[in-house]
Structures are given as C-alpha cells and as structure tokens.
Design a protein that fits this description.
The protein has about 290 residues and is an alpha/beta fold. The chain folds into two domains: about 1-85; about 85-290, von Willebrand factor, type A domain (Rossmann fold), CATH 3.40.50. It is built from eleven helices and nine strands. It has helices at about 1-40, 45-55, 65-70, 75, 85-95, 125-135, 155-165, 165-175, 210-215, 230-240, 270-280, and strands at about 45, 80-85, 115-120, 140-150, 175-185, 195, 205, 250-255, 280-290. Helix 1 runs antiparallel to helix 2 (about 45-55) and helix 10 (about 230-240) packs parallel to helix 11. The longest helix is centred in the first third of the chain and has 38 residues, at about 1-40. The chain is elongated and about 90 Å long. The chain binds calcium ion (2 copies). The site of one calcium ion has 9 residues, from helix 7.
Length: about 290
C-alpha cells in the first residue's frame, strides 16, 4: 500500500515539475516571439511588452525585482535591449515648451523645443549627450546642465559618463558653454533625493573641476518603485542653477524611468514647463535602455 501511495505521489510531483517546465518554456517562447516581433532590426523591446509576457505588474516592481526579472531573461533577450517606452512618451511631451508663459526678465531667453534620444545602453550615453549638445548648439554662449537620474539602475550609465567626461566637456567647449550638474532620485523614498553641483554656479567647460568631481561623487542607489522624481528634479535644477546665458539655457536629463506624477513636491508636467518657460530653459532627455 505504502509503495503504491508513494508512486502516485511521485508521479504527481513529476507531472507538476513537467508542467512548470512547460510554463517556463512557453514564457520563454512568448518573450522570444515578442523580442522578434517588436525588437525588429534594432533590438528594441518595450518594458511593458516584457512585463505583460512575464505576467508582472509595473506598479508592484522595484529596482531589485526588475533587475532579477531582466537577469532571468538574459538568454532569451540576447542582444536586445529593454526600454521603458512610457518614459520616452513622457519625455516627448516634456520637451515641448510652454509658450504661454513669459520668460522672467529681459535677459532671459525663450525656452526652445528640446529633443529626446533613446539610448540602447550605458555605452551609448556619452555619445548621445554629445549629440544633444551638437544638435542644440545655437548662436553665442550657452549653459548646459547635466541632470542625472541617480537611482539603482543608473550606476553603469554614470560610470560611462564619468569615463568620457573629458570628451563631453570638449564638445561643450566647442559650443562655448558653461556647464553644471545635478542629480535626482525619488522624493517619496530617498533622502537626499536631489543634489546640485557647485551651489548652482556654472563653470567654463574648459575648467569644470567642480562639475567633474560632483559627478564622480554621486552615490547611486534607491528609487523604490519604477517612476522617479523627474518633474521635481527638473524644477529644482531650473530654479537652483545661476543661469548666465542670454541666448540658450538647457538641461539634459539622463534616465531610464518614467516620471512620478504628481511628484513628491507636487510638480506635474504643466508646473515643470511653467518653471522652464520662466527660466528660459530648454529641456532635453536621454532615455536609456534598462540595465544594471
Ligand atoms: Ca521610484
Ligand atoms: Ca543602467
């Protein structure tokens, strides 16, 4: 009797394991299909497609569980990269200026139309920053501030920026720019959630030691849930920088995440754009593929 009972139990167990295996294989197949269908030639796959396929809820994920999910799918994803397409959509809205708000003071330029660049991964980021600087270059001197998302998944991106900082600054020097830097995290969970280099004073791109050492000292981490304090971070930067240029002021945000809205300090897309228009700041955003 015992033997028979154990045999039955064992068969049930074997079947259960086999079914789990089938489910895993099905999930892998589905992801592979999604990668092939949506990744296309450039290998780009939207985060939501991956999460749907895995049965994961965006609202329940944090940095760690997302990192685990991506790591578990490493083989299936292959050379493809995962990007938060919602973040790109948010950024595309954000870089269109508010034209109904007047710049404060006669010396303040008008906020212009910024651009959004999607970056495959960390290695592309320095080149993409240089591309924004080149594309946005106007007449006369300009102010360029790098605003870094400093939450958990941005460590590899910041490392690449720091490795290539001389090249980025050389590009800024070509544009006769003054430079500055800041970081943001998630105002609901992180302390500090924001930091500004050099007390908000800009430096010549040719001798930007405070900016360089600030970016080297940013402590990556935190973030909690997926969206971060993009709107608060931009507002704090636009208000905190001692802008100098009368012709072109710009912020370049580097992030892989969507914006919290309303943000911890209550900012939304509209309130952020109003501050940008008053300060005459053009917003640009680089949305980088999610990797750790
Ligand atoms: Ca968050
Ligand atoms: Ca990253």
């Amino acid at each position: 009797m015992m033997t028979k009972k154990w045999t039955v139990l064992l068969s049930v167990l074997v079947m259960a394991i086999a079914m789990m295996q089938i489910n895993c294989d099905e999930a892998d197949d589905a992801i592979e299909e999604a990668v092939n269908a949506l990744g296309g030639e450039d290998g780009r796959i939207c985060l939501d497609v991956l999460l749907d396929t895995l049965g994961l809820d965006r609202d329940e994920l944090d940095d760690e569980s997302l990192a685990d999910a991506l790591e578990a799918q490493e083989d299936v994803l292959g050379e493809s990269y995962v990007i938060d397409c919602e973040a790109t959509e948010t950024a595309e809205e954000a870089v269109t200026p508010d034209t109904t708000t007047e710049p404060e003071g006669d010396d303040t330029p008008e906020a212009g139309e910024g651009e959004v660049i999607e970056s495959d991964g960390a290695e592309q980021v320095p080149g993409d920053i240089e591309e924004v600087i080149e594309n946005q270059q106007g007449e006369g001197s300009e102010d360029i501030v790098i605003l870094m998302d400093a939450t958990g998944s941005m460590g590899d991106d910041l490392a690449e920026i720091n490795d290539s900082i001389d090249s980025i600054l050389a590009k800024a020097e070509e544009a006769e720019a003054k430079v500055g830097a800041a970081f943001y995290k998630d105002g609901f969970v992180d302390s500090p959630w924001f930091g500004l280099a050099n007390g908000g004073d800009l430096e010549d791109a040719s001798s930007a030691s405070a900016t360089t050492s600030f970016l080297n000292s940013v402590a990556i981490g935190g973030g909690g849930d997926l969206p971060e304090s993009f709107y608060d971070g931009v507002v704090e930067t636009a208000n905190g920088i001692n802008w100098e240029s009368h012709t072109k002021r710009m912020i370049i945000v580097i992030t892989d995440a969507d914006a919290l809205s309303p943000d911890a300090e209550g900012n939304t897309e509209a309130s952020m754009k109003e501050v940008l228009a008053k300060k005459g700041v053009t917003l640009n955003t680089i949305i980088v593929g999610i990797a750790y």
